[in-house]
Hints:
The complex is a heterodimer.
Chain A: E1 5-7, E2 10-13, E3 19-24, E4 31-37, E5 44-50, E6 53-57, E7 65-68, E8 75-79, E9 88-95, E10 105-106, E11 110-114
Chain B: E1 4-6, E2 9-13, E3 18-24, E4 31-37, E5 43-50, E6 55-58, E7 61-66, E8 71-76, E9 85-92, E10 100-101, E11 105-110
Amino acid sequence: DTGVSQDPRHKITKRGQNVTFRCDPISEHNRLYWYRQTLGQGPEFLTYFQNEAQLEKSRLLSDRFSAERPKGSFSTLEIQRTEQGDSAMYLCASSSDRASGEKLFFGSGTQLSVL
Amino acid sequence: GEDVEQSLFLSVREGDSSVINCTYTDSSSTYLYWYKQEPGAGLQLLTYIFSNMDMKQDQRLTVLLNKKDKHLSLRIADTQTGDSAIYFCAETSTGRRALTFGSGTRLQVQP
């Protein structure tokens, strides 16, 4: 296993379109996180899954955003009716609950540009 | 709420030591982290420290924690050009899964 994998790496879309991103975590990790990073800023937490259960959601996650992790393995993040303000890098991370201290391993991210 | 602050930029010469500083506001912070991000890449966990520790050393990296002042630093010994990147400080507390990140410090290493 080579780490957290995200697809696509880049996505350009027009305002109002829907987009979906995929994340494949490290195989033995049961915790999965989505973060958003804008230029010049650190990542901001969006949501967290323990296995298939979505246990935490940030206020940043408006009702246009939905995340799923149906079988406790890969996850998808969908943004409906995209807005220019959604342009950002969307980062996925995973960790194991057998490790203390929330050591997150990040993927390379999906860069979203909304025109 | 939780807040983490870092200086924006640091420039050092190759072979010198680099010290990147971070302050945080949450007095219940339990875990503190340093991540490295290279252009176009995700974040790589460099090291972390529990709040009951004052110092942690890992090869060229030394983390110092002053819990009273809520100050964290990362020292990189013998800095190399490959260390040029953005360094993020992050924190969380027991029971909170979300990490709060600073805005990052861009380290430039001059040959």
